[in-house]
Amino acid sequence: MSADTEEAAALTGLDNLENVPRDGGRSTGEIGGRVWRALWPKVLAVAIVLGVWELVYLLNVKPHDILPGPGQVFPDLWHQLTHGQLWQAIGTTLRRAVIGFALALVIGSLVGLVVARVPPVRAAVGSMITGLQTIPSVVWIPFAIILFGNNTPAILFMVIITAAPSIANGLIAGVDFTPPLLLRAGKSMGLRRFALYRDLIMPAALPPFVAGLKQGWAFAWHGLFAGELLVIVPNSPSIGVLLSSDQDQTDMVGVISIMIVILVLGVAVDIAFNMLNESIRRRRGLAQPPAIGRGWRLGTGAAR
Amino acid sequence: MSTTDQRTLNGQAPPAASPGPAGQDVAPAIQITDVTKTFGKGRGATVALDGVSLSVAPGEFVCLIGASGCGKSTLLSLVAGLEAPTSGTVSTGGRPVAFMFQEPALFPWFTAAQNVGLPLRANGVGRRERHQRVQELLESVHLGGFADKRPHELSGGMRQRVALARALAQDAEVLLMDEPFGALDAMTRDLLHELLEGIWRRQGFSVLFVTHEVREAVRLGDRVVLLSSRPGRVLQEFGIDAARPRGIDSGQTVERAMQIKARLNEEVMRHVG
């Protein structure tokens, strides 16, 4: 058996040679630097936008009550955040977004799965799903109001009908992109039916599925505000309601404040999706070890 | 391995349609009878395999070699049941079959241990027993300490060892290998030859091993089967009776490989005109 242990030792030696630690020491002092490197381009970009805005304001392109400057908008936003109904409105809107998106997730996934795996169904409705995506979200408004009335379900419907097609398409793409070699391997080792889905097809479909979720969320965000602006639900302050009441009062300061809130919420969700995506990629060895604030990097943080 | 001598006696004989080497009383582990495989239809059809007959005895290690386009890999797919022959029969007599590919084909979302445990889980082996079996299997390929690593954290050779452990987890009596070490560097490959040979001798399953490296075939096989190209037919069989373990660079191996290579070259030159 000495030949055997010799072979084991040689293999271990080779293994040790090949497995150089990937990320060279990451000290705590370096993290501060990384955060700064990731952050400064964003800070700079925001500063430039604010600067241009202030400049336009100072140039008096439009009267100041029609086009207010940052100096009026941010105090108003702060005031709304500390006094008004804004938090309640954000709560209402996000609750609708989450419930609607969750329903879209269930419906989109089920439809996607059936379409992906049942050829006649795919032939029948496969291209219709993409067709649905091309319908602008406001076009659904009359349909939703007639079907559900001026009510929360009409707004949820807007979220679902805009998000579900993207989610379904993401899942279909994912199932289609299961690597054939892995499929062969899986079948040759006895993966069937449920196990085949659980261990192979679903995990393989995950990255395109997450891409579909992200796109679905973007559409849902459109559908949600189309709904909140046009479907007037009584006694239910939402971001859309605040926005349209500001419009009614020609309160541009208020309008811009609310738009900033919508922008920040949208960016926050986008970052969350990117983090999810990145963590999947990292687990599968498709990405480098993370630099903080990926996606916005300007090439500085890439090389250690 | 008491039947080694009988098998190699038959080495040079062209394959008969009747099953198995002469004088063998056990049913073959793999019986391929007059198999033809055609891809496509009508005028554009390609004949990948044409009247191939081959049998592999239980515990026998048979290497298939041939130039490109000889249908080696197709033959393995047929034995694995991943494809069906156009005509003829392929049988393993109900023996379970495991397949190992040139690429490790590990699932990137699972750890090494989870990958090895997959066939066990598919067969309903309970969690505790599975855990123990997986650890034993990983240790048998000298990767006991890498259970929790994901495929991308392992080197090519290590991944292929995980794939071997996964194939062994199927407890198959027939192991099909499609150029499993083709993508590895020479040193790693030599070590994996030793590893595979050791496990094979201990466990006694049958191996059908496809390679385009004649020396690798001579290093590992009890028998080397040379296939012709387009269409694939069994051209000649060579018994290898050198004592194991053999060195891939030993005089005996090199000499036998030269003979086989000469025959292979003839076949390739036949296609020049």
Q: What's the count of strands of chain B? A: 9
Overall, the morphology of chain A is flat
Mean pLDDT of chain A: 84
Number of domains of chain B: 2
**Which segments of chain B are poorly predicted (pLDDT under 50) over 5 or more consecutive residues?**
1-23
Percent helix of chain A, as a range, is over 70%
Task: Please state the average pLDDT score of chain B.
Answer: 83
E-strand count of chain A: 0
Give the N-to-C terminal Cα separation of chain A: 46 Å
Helix content of chain B: 25-40%
Question: What structural category do the secondary elements of chain A indicate?
Answer: mainly alpha
Low-confidence stretches of chain A: 290-304
CATH topology of the largest domain in chain B: Rossmann fold
CATH architecture of the domain at 92-283 in chain A: Orthogonal Bundle
CATH class of the domain at 92-283 in chain A: Mainly Alpha
Biggest interface found = A-B, 32 and 39 residues
Shape of chain B: globular
Secondary structure topology:
The complex is a heterodimer of chains A (304) and B (273).
Chain A: H1 2-18, H2 28-58, H3 70-82, H4 86-117, H5 119-134, H6 140-148, H7 152-176, H8 180-188, H9 193-230, H10 239-248, H11 252-283
Chain B: H1 4-9, E1 30-39, E2 46-56, E3 61-65, H2 72-80, E4 87-91, E5 97-100, H3 112-122, H4 127-140, H5 156-169, E6 174-178, H6 186-203, E7 206-210, H7 214-220, E8 223-227, E9 234-239, H8 251-270
Parallel strand pairs in B: 3-7, 3-8, 5-6, 6-7
Antiparallel strand pairs in B: 1-2, 1-4, 8-9
Structure description:
The complex is a heterodimer of chains A (304) and B (273). By secondary structure, chain A is mainly alpha-helical. Chain A has a domain at 92-283: Orthogonal Bundle (MetI-like fold). Chain A is built from 11 helices and no strands. In chain A, helix 7 (152-176) runs antiparallel to helix 9 (193-230). Chain A is flat. The two termini of chain A are 46 Å apart. With 273 residues, chain B is an alpha/beta fold. Chain B folds into 2 domains: 4-96 and 173-263, 3-Layer(aba) Sandwich (Rossmann fold), CATH 3.40.50; 106-171, no CATH class. Chain B has 8 helices and 9 strands. In chain B, the strands form 2 sheets. A 6-stranded mixed sheet of chain B has the order 5-6-7-3-8-9, sandwiched between helices. A 3-stranded antiparallel sheet of chain B has the order 2-1-4. In chain B, a hairpin with a 6-residue loop joins strand 8 (223-227) and strand 9 (234-239). In chain B, helix 3 (112-122) crosses helix 4 (127-140), helix 3 (112-122) packs parallel to helix 5 (156-169) and helix 4 (127-140) crosses helix 5 (156-169). Chain B starts with a helix and ends with a helix. The chains are: A mainly alpha (304), B alpha/beta (273).
